[in-house]
Known about the structure:
Elements: H1 35-52, H2 66-77
Helix pairs in contact: 1-2
Amino acid sequence: MTLNAGLADRFRMVVIDLRGYNRSDKPSGVDQYAMPLLVSDIVAVIRQLAVEINMSPKAVIVGHDWGGAVTWSVAMTRLDLG
């Protein structure tokens, strides 16, 4: 059973790669991977999807490995999205 099998009927599922991973942009310099920038990347995706479906920018986010730290930072700094 895949992760989305039990959730797709209630949620819109979106899977993204953080900057520097897989097919995402790979900016040069360690400063381009600072936590505030990674958080703003996630927030931008949430806001864009909210515009596309004409809903408020609320999200349930899940992260794995380094993404777990990023999603924790989103949750702690962007209470308006929860």
